Structure formats: C-alpha cells, structure tokens
Amino acid sequence: MRFIKELNGSFETNENETGYDMKKFKSTVRKMKNELTKEFGDVIENVKLSAGFFHMSGFFTRKRDNQVMYISIGDVRHGFAGTMLIRTAKDYKDYTGGSNNFMALEQSEDDGWGMTIPFEKRFIDFIK
Questions:
Q1: Which H or E run includes 114?
Q2: Which of 54, 60, 99, 46 is nearest to 73 (CA)?
C-alpha cells in the first residue's frame, strides 16, 4: 500500500519546511483513507481519519457485526516506530476503547518460518 511507503521516513520537522511537510502528511492520510476503503471495502466501511501534527487517528466500522474500530499511527517523524494501534471502540468518539493491539505497517512481516505475510493479509486477519 502506497501510504505505508510514504509514512516511513518521509517526514521531518524544521523551521523552513513544516508547512510543506504538513500538507504532504495530510495528503498521505487522505491516501490512507482511500486505500483502506478501496482495498478492504468488502469488510469495512465508513472510514474516518484525522491528521494531527504528524500523527493520525480515526475509525471504521467492521461490516460483519457493525463493530466500530479505532486506529492510530503515532508521530511519523524522527524514529517512526512503523506500527499502527488498532482496537475496538463503542462509537466514533470513543478514543479509549478496548485493548490495544499493535500491527507493523511494513509491507511484509516474517512469520517466523522465513515466509512473509503482507500487511493487507494481516489487517484482514486481525479485523475478521
């Protein structure tokens, strides 16, 4: 997914470029919303994302049971952890929700046997 590549190491903060980087970051958050909606539209709906100061959070609804899910990606500047927090929520204003779960945003992750599991598969497996 393109938004993952853009989040990884693309943003820095300095006095001269903060405005440009914030526009670029907000554009990346819009791409993330569009990519999640397009790629996972058969299992999720009503994706709402908000860009903060180099972090983002938002909600979507899992179609099979109408469960609201909260997602958050922390500060993407300087030492970005490359993870997304995901948990259940009561509604689109519940920022405290269920138990925290973290998912690596890498394009693929080793399954322990030398095989890689793409982000898209891990995301689907988690929200099912």
A1: none
A2: 54
Q: How far is residue 88's CA from residue 21's CA, in Å, rounded to a whole number? A: 31
Q: How far is CA 80 from CA 7, 8, 30, 74, 83, in A?
A: 8, 7, 19, 8, 8
C-beta atoms surrounding 68 within 10 Å: 17
pLDDT tens digits, 79-119: 677 788 899 999 999 988 889 988 887 755 555 665 677 77
User: Is residue 128 over pLDDT 80?
Assistant: no
Q: Which CA distances in Å does 27 have to 20, 44, 54, 104, 122?
A: 11, 21, 11, 21, 24
